[in-house]
Amino acid sequence: MAEVKAFRGLRFDTQKSGDISEVVCPPYDIISEEQRLEYIKENEFNIIRLELPKGDDPYGSAGRIFDEWLEKGILKEEDREAVYIYEEEFTAYEKKYKVKGCIVRVKIEEFEKGIILPHEFTLSKAKEDRLNLMKATFCNFSQIYALYSDEEGKTISKLDRLSERTPDIEFSDGEGVVHRMWIVTDEEEIKSICGDFEERKLFIADGHHRYETALNYRNYCRENGLSKEGDGVDYQMMMLVNMEHPGLVVFPTHRIVHDLPDFDGEKVIDACMEYFDITEYESVGNMESVLRTHYNNNEKAFGMYCGGGKWTLLVLRSPDTMARLLPGLSKASQGLDVTVLHTLILEKLMGIDAENMANQINLSYVKQFDDAVRAVDEGNANCAFILNPTKISEICDVSSAGEKMPQKSTYFYPKLITGLVINRLD
Fold first, then answer.
1. Which of 174, 257, 354, 357 has its CA at 20 to 30 Å from residue 70's CA atom?
2. Secondary structure of the chain: what % helix, strand, coil (to 5)?
3. pLDDT confidence of 29, banded at 50, 70, 90?
4. What pLDDT digit, counting tens, does each position of 361-384 carry?
């Protein structure tokens, strides 16, 4: 099954780069241009200059900056191979959480081998960008986030024991998330941790584009005589977390419908009566709590907001509806909230087909409930659909069935920080 290894990571020498909190950043794909410039303004050595380069020759620039930082000792390689224990402490749904896993090298495999499994579709443009960056820098600057099954807690008990001491790195990112890392170099401990994964599959939680890019890069290197089997390009840096970990949190991604000609919310609601039980509410203030109740009851429910403060609760009347409409899909995929919404409402009742959704012609995605409501109230959207989060078990069931969810089906929170450790591929 999964082949997991320790590695000699590159890390910032904070005596030369400045405090670690000033040189790390969130994942590149959630950073605005304004934020990118602010990170560089605060510290010229921020990893964003490598992870999200700009200019006339962005990838070449990233390669040159990386080489310069190596030469000056801004980045230094670990003296010994290590496994990096990484923990995030944060607040979600008004509760405190901690999630812990290990950062390692994992041998990449084609999905059809059933060793590493995806759950979402990807876009070619994003993969092209990451491939060009890999060719220029020969590095992973951020981790792919993956889950594994370990109901007995065999691995996490080892990680907990090894992280009882003071962390080697600890800081707050200013967004309320505390990041901690412990560096494990003991060979016997490493062998024990890596050996746990010999009979396990991995489920990609976040980083599908980067994983598919890694496969493309490995193939490119082999085809051009730049590598052979077993070389560094066969392995990618991943953060591995037990899917039973109590600290795992998934947020929903809400849908905004916009620019539909002749949109009539009342007609849509009337059409929904064929498949959904419908309840009207006077204020959006209780929408999230009402939806959470149905989520806890394993019911498929959405909030539809068309403005004016009022909203409509839509609860799927029978799961048989999805089995009838999508007989070729597994029960796991048929039962996803996003599948129900996309199939029954967006596509069947509103005429927004899969290609339209993929190109975001009449459909956009937002993370925050307030942003979805505001888009409608300010006239930038016809309506918004508020969703419950996808469950971890659903992600694994869909992946195990060899299927993929619609885009933006999951949002693991918090995102893994970029820049704690770097994996060189050459």
1. 174
2. 40, 25, 35
3. confident
4. 999 999 999 999 999 999 999 999
Name the β-bridge partners of 181.
Answer: 86, 169
Euclidean distance between CA atoms 14 and 22, whole angstroms: 10
Cα 100 from Cα 104, distance rounded (Å) = 13
Going by C-alpha positions, the residue among 385, 320, 300 that lies closest to residue 347 is 385
Q: State the pLDDT confidence band at 120, using cuts at 50, 70 and 90.
A: confident
Asked if the structure places residue 400 within a domain, the reply is: no
User: For residue 172, which of 32, 18, 22, 33 has the smallest C-alpha distance?
Assistant: 22
With beta carbons less than 8 A apart as the criterion, state whether 81 and 6 touch. Answer: yes
Tally Cβ neighbours within 10 Å of residue 176. Answer: 11
Do 181 and 49 lie in one domain? The reply is yes
* Nearest-angstrom CA–CA distance, 337 and 344: 11
Q: Are strands 4-5 and 95-107 parallel, antiparallel or unpaired?
A: antiparallel
Asked if 242 and 334 sit in the same domain, the reply is no
Q: Is 59 exposed, middle or buried (0-12, 13-18, 19+ CB in 10 A)?
A: middle
Longest dimension (CA), the chain: 67
Q: Which two tokens stand for residue 321?
A: 């509806």
**Tokens read off for 206:** 């976040």
CA distance 5 to 22: 29
- Residues 83 and 162 grouped into a single domain: yes
What is the total count of domains within the chain? 2
CA atoms within 13 A on the CB side of 310: 8
- The two three-digit tokens of residue 200, written as one number: 């396990």
d(CA 34, CA 254) in angstroms, rounded, equals 24
d(CA 353, CA 69): 48
**237 and 368 part of one domain:** no
Host H or E run for residue 325: helix 320-325
Residues 228, 216 share a domain = yes
